[in-house]
Specification:
Blueprint (H helix, E strand, L loop, with lengths): L1 H14 L6 H15 L8 H7 L22 H5 L18 H55 L8 H29 L1
């Protein structure tokens, strides 16, 4: 899905007007994508916001390989392939000094992308932890309120057996609250 949107985004960028901002470009790309994909909207804007600066998506236009390209090798067209080769396969020729300095830009971009992704994941994890703690505190508060409401329950209209169990539960709640208050007093000191 992101791959398809990348092509649409590049097309929208070519169709753009000078002085147009990113928001206008994104709206045009969304519109083109929706028209080409049966009115289905592209929903991964947050992913695209991160990936659009990665070298894979920010590369120049695709090379047309349908025509005859004289004396062009795969490396001329696509650059050096840094993937490790399986055993038994021939290895590509070693890089010259100029190739080695040119390829560090990709490695640096890859490292930068990795750091950005790591930072993004760390921020999301911290936000999730804060949200979890907030929800846990909310649950504890609601439980305290329910317990206080239960303590206000009258037993005068109940039969003796039901009143006994209500009083027993009230006593358990009071003991729990005393313990909780005792723990809070210890923290204050």
């Amino acid at each position: 899905m992101v791959n398809r949107f990348a092509h649409v985004y590049k097309r929208a960028k070519r169709l753009g007007k000078s002085g147009e901002n990113d928001a206008d470009l994104m709206k045009r790309a969304q519109s083109i994508y929706r028209d080409e994909h049966k009115r289905v909207s592209f929903t991964q804007e947050d992913v695209w916001a991160i990936l659009k600066f990665h070298p894979k998506w920010d590369a120049p236009e695709q090379v047309d390989l349908t025509g005859d390209v004289p004396r062009a090798t795969q490396e001329d067209l696509f650059g050096h392939d840094a993937r490790p080769r399986p055993a038994g396969k021939p290895r590509p020729a070693k890089k010259s000094k100029s190739d080695a300095t040119a390829s560090t830009g990709g490695s640096s971009a890859s490292t930068q992308f990795g750091k950005l992704m790591e930072q993004e994941l760390r921020l999301k994890r911290e936000a999730a932890e804060r949200a979890f703690e907030a929800q846990a505190e909310k649950d504890r508060t609601l439980m305290r309120l329910e317990e206080l409401r239960f303590l206000a329950t009258s037993t005068k209209d109940l039969d003796d057996d039901d009143a006994y169990w209500i009083k027993k539960q009230k006593q358990l709640i009071k003991n729990k609250m005393r313990n909780d208050l005792g723990d809070e007093d210890d923290e204050d000191e």
